[in-house]
Amino acid sequence: MEEKIWKDHYALLNKDEENELEAFGYKTQCCRKALCIAGYILSCGALLLLFYWKPEWDVWANCVPCSLEEADVILLRTTMRCIQVQKIRYIWDFSVKEFRKVGSLEDSNTCHSIHHKFGAGLTGEERKIRQLVCGPNAIEVEIRPIWRLLFKEILNPFYVFQAFTLTLWLSQGYIEYSVAIIVLSVISVGLTVYDLRQSTKLHDLVEEHNKVQVTVCTKNEGFKELESHYLVPGDVFLLDGKKLSLPCDAVLIDGSCIVNEGMLTGESIPVMKTLLPFTESPEPWKTHSMEDYRRHVLFCGTEVIQAKSSGRGPARAVVLQTGFNTAKGDLVRSILYPRPLNFQLYRDAFKFIVGLSAIGVLGLIYTVCVFTYHKKPVADVVAMALLLLTAAVPPAIPAALTTGTVYAQRRLKKKKIFCITPQRINICGQINLVCFDKTGTLTEDGLDLWGILPSEGSRFQKIHKFPSSTPLPWGPVCGAMASCHSLVVLDKKIQGDPLDLKMFEGTHWEIEESSTARDRAGATDVCIVRPGPNASSAPVEGIAILHQFPFSSGLQRMSVVSQKIGEEQYDLYMKGAPETVSSFCRQETVPSDFLEELKTYTSQGFRVIALAHKVLSLPEDVDVSDLEREEAESGLEFLGLLVMENRLKPETKPVLRELAAARIRSIMVTGDNLQTAVTVARNADMIHEASKVIIVEASEPEGSTPASIAWRLAEGSKASAAAPTEMCANTQEKITLGGESSNYHFAMNGKSYQVLIKHFYSLLPKILLNATVFARMSPGQKSSLVEELQKLDYYVGMCGDGANDCGALKMAHAGISLSEQEASVASPFTSQIPNIQCVPELIREGRAALVASFAVVKYLTLYGLIQFVGTALLFWQLQIFGNYQYLIQDMVITLLVCLTMSLTEAYPKLAPYRPPGQLISPPLLLSVILNVCFTIAMQTCGFLLVKKQPWYVALASWRHCSLGNQTLPPASPGENSTSSSDHSTVLSYEGTTLWPLSSVNCIIVAFVFSKGKPFRKPIYTNYVFSALLTLQLATCLFLFLADMDAVYSGMQFLCTPVIWRVYVLLMLLVTFCVSFFTEDVLLQNKHLWMLIKACVGYQSKSQYRKWQRMLQRDPNWPPVNTKDFAARSTAEVYINPSYEHRD
After folding, report:
1. What pTM was estimated for this model as a whole?
2. Is there a smaller number of Cβ atoms within 10 Å at the N or the C end of the chain?
3. CA geometry: angle at 521 spanning 516 and 523, to 5°?
């Protein structure tokens, strides 16, 4: 019966549709209604206001459930269950019982469905539903108010402990020391809040794109102006030719655009975008376009510089993603929610605090026992026990850890290196491998045109060198160079890819600023190029570039459809990687010595581009923009090779040598030809002259033949002159393994790398240990490579120009983008100086910051324990340090040391080893433990020896030194007045002895732990810190040695004989010598630790070290001039999803 009532009470509207709703039937009940009215009156309308805010509560209060047939009130409820995780919205899908991400157009749409389903826009109803589901189209970076950040920070367990400490000291009347703790806490919280408030820069960077006016096309309503905030996936908006900052990701369905993607990539080179083809292929549109789908996509945050209409009307685009689902939103999210930094320092610092707390608890137990034994009041026992507990945990640890990175960030900024994630600076100190892009990073941005090697009748002709006194003669090669590019005229200046620019300049042709031509399908905007005054005479007035198939790093080619002005014939010109272009040409047109000629130039480090041509046979009414790329780019005629010179930047070779000397591996990851990359690596000293290069060539399975991998010694290696069999034997003898000093290097292209990932994954770690050159790598493969190197426990840096390297830059431990922009979101670090000098600079600063962080943590640990030991010794006889005595230790010494210790700059030369990466390591732990032992020994000696002096009195109150160290007779505690009881707990010879021992000991450890070379400059170069230490030491000695009643009275000291003060100074001198010797000669002695490790048989647990040891025992590694096959052809076992949507 109940089931029937429920069934009648409930119904589902629009089942399985976007606007699905649940309907519930209710009937108003008079008595309930009357009670609610009474409630409105008694609450003075507050209940009515509540029901206004919550209408469902109004229904539940006034009505009773009933069948929908009898209902006079229907409660509608959306079936959506929505959550938001890291700015991405997810909706619960009842049909499959899982959460689904919303805010994107489905990837399953085909090219045909995007054009026909969304080409005319959405209806008003569809837009409302999508707005409800997807939310607003905005990338909103919240600037958290200072009060909220403060509140969150203060609730940190450490600061709760600090508040407890503060309360304790205030209750004891130690106002000055309480002020010291407040100052420390305020500085620490302030630095942390300052760090967190860096999101304001990010907020300013994204805010301008949230409110852009766009013209949206909707069904039945036509065109209307909207704020981009209201855009939803599936909307169609117009690109009317004005400059526009794109507020969303969109796919172009009409016309073409020139876009500046500098905001995302750091490169301000105009990029041509073309419309999505009208093909009726059943494949999803991204699959149909393969790796090159980006050529149709306009990314959020980029700027449309120019929009060209097609014959069908103005340029239009369909919204793909909105808000944080966009490319820009994804980058912003990666900054707001960075990959967790698995770095030991922060975990170890927490362990230190836990360890100190445990020591504090032992001190608490000790105090309770001592004070209870002497039958002290419970209030005193609790107060003193808690006081010793808090003394063990230094209040400045969080502040000190923050100051190191803040100072390092400031130093980097002066060197034009900007950082958006300061936590990564410490990690830079552990980098032991750096990946470099080639073009624009290791080599100059611009290419110089060196020559053109034309081909005719399947034979190469005489090379035409540049610069030349005679212009390039007219012909297919000249036509290809003049038209096969993506150059545009903006503000009367030709702009575009540097390679395209150099190639076009070599023809002496000119580009018209804007033209409209009429092809067989109608009017269209085209680019027209004409011979310039210095060009060779040509039988054509000019060439109209009607359509482009843009270049992509995935396809490694581009082509254009053009038409000579005044002629009916259409031409297709292609340029790209020689191996790729030749595969699209008729083999009879490719010279037989093609590979030999290619190697001739690539082995000299030239960049080689191939050109090809085809006459298109098209029907009269065809629209060239509808041409299928695969069909058009087939059966071409090979035209020749374009040889370009790509010089190394002058800074490249010295920097790579510096990194090699510091035992930091360098790897080249480029989209260029493999032979060119190997030659550049040799020229840059990335591969030593005497080293051999083994080319790894892996092939996919074909039919019954499984996947194979061949190991070939590259030409140019010293053994290559020997006979094949002899060469193999000789090579096996000569090639050795030795970690960084191994005399062989692997080189491969992206295709081979992908086959290794799929079919030879077990071999990958072995190859990566000595792989130095990766060529023809797509952006996704670059990201995958960085991730695989990280799996081997390398700390990986990546340096690139930001264009095709975004994924790898973000994946690396330290990604450095060479960009003119100060705040590029392409990577954690941005260098405005466009060369790789920033890499050793960043590593130097990282090492200095890491060593400084360790030094500060060690110092604060010692400071806490020094104070703890001194206080514990005084507690033994129910005494304590004076208020001002604590104040000088905490404020004058420790606070200033913490704020200035990290100011020491990085040492200019990179050491051939890294600083320790863990606090919980033998040298660092021994340093702390031994110095604590020295402290205990020194303070205990002082405490015990002072009692044996003939002038010693247990409870003294005489301060004057003028009467020859006289003291009053000892008085029992019962005879002391209340006013003198405070003095009796402070005034003592033990306290007067222990204070200089503990205070100067703090200065000693500050000096000893401020290690200079090899990671930081000597301590004396840190002028502020050195001056402060000197001043602090002088202050402490003055207070201890001055025979002045006012000083002794204020500091609550007793006067001691001069000889005793000399003994105290001797104890401090001995402690300094022992501590300095132990730290500098023993614990920081790299050779001694290497010897100890060898004696105890210690071996590194890093994965790459384990593999190196394994390969050293393998007599058959590396293989040379052999070929291996996969045991069986397997399905793809590994897919790296890194940065998938930007391949």
Report:
1. 0.73
2. N
3. 20
